[in-house]
Amino acid sequence: MKKFIIIGGVLGIVGVMLAFLLFSSLDSIITEAVEHFGSEITKTEVSLDKTVISATTGKGSLYGLKVANPKPFKTPSAFEFSEVSLTLDIASITKDTVVIKEIVIAGPEITYEVGANGSNIDAIKKNVDSYSTPSKSDPYEKKEVEPSDKKQKKLIIEKLIIRDGKINISASFLNGKSMSVSLPGLNLNDIGKDKGGATPSEVTNKIITSLRQNINKAVGTLGLDQAKKAIEGVAKDLKGKLEKGIGDPEKLLDGKAEDIGNAIKGLF
Q: What is the distance between the alpha carbons of residues 77 and 50, in angstroms, rounded to a whole number?
């Protein structure tokens, strides 16, 4: 009997030590997980300055979270979150499914860059989609993705709030002018709850899909597409006339420059 008591005591001490090690390194574990899985899922660099989480209350913040732009986009980042507040269910940390009670992202900075084949936000969404659903053309890709997801802890996010965000517009046809628009607020509830937990890629897909809808809705009010088409039409007309030798080149350039300027002014 005494032997079992001693063994039980030793096991209890080991358990306490393991729990202490887990919770004392919780900040670094979260930072590494966000950077690793974030970069893997979005196929671009995701960086996080630091994480501070209370091991007793589960409340804390992520500081300096940044999602870089994929190639060939030129602006340094797509998303910048100076602080992300969250509350974890501490009891779930050691379980297969981690429960996050609340995430609040206040004042995010988003850069919407227009490229030849769409925006940077569209490109990141495609990357997330391709991670979740490997292409049929590469039969080996799926074998790489599925085991990775199976090893990951699953997540349930009971409440996600994004508010007071700003979208900065970057497009070559704006001729150096800057534009910005407010990001509509976003509230999502019970992500992954209906299936007992979602993988990090499923959570990312859910958030980026909803966020992209709000971004496109806000940017759509600026009439960028119409301005781009107008400018492309002016440039095409100018090119055709110059090639055919119609009119005075200098006057044509001056006139078309004014047309392009008017198209840009219509956005402001």
A: 18
> Would you list the domain boundaries of the chain?
27-221, 225-265
Interval 134-163: pLDDT, tens: 555 544 344 444 444 445 689 999 999 999
Candidates 109, 121, 134, 144; CA nearest to 207 is 121
Angle between helix axes 200-220 and 26-42 (nearest 10 degrees) is 60
Work out the widest C-alpha separation in the chain, in whole angstroms. Answer: 106
Paired strand residues for 51: 62
Q: Could you tell me the two tokens for 22?
A: 């887990």
Q: Please choose, from the candidates 200, 209, 20, 19, the residue with its C-alpha nearest in 3D space to the C-alpha of residue 100.
A: 200
Which tens digit of pLDDT belongs to each residue from 158-204?
Answer: 999 999 999 998 876 565 566 788 999 999 999 999 999 999 999 99
* Neighbour-count burial of 158, counting CB atoms closer than 10 A to its CB (0-12 exposed, 13-18 middle, 19+ buried): middle
For Cα atoms 95, 147, 64, give the angle at the middle one, nearest 5 degrees.
65
pTM of the shown model:
0.72
In the three-class reduction of DSSP (H, G, I as helix; E, B as strand; rest coil), residue 177 is classed as coil
| Nearest CA among 104, 28, 110 for reference residue 66 | 110
- 78 Cβ partners below 8 Å, 6+ apart? 44, 67, 68, 69, 110, 111, 113, 120, 121, 124
The CA distance from 222 to 237, in Å, is 25
- The tokens for 37 are 């899985």
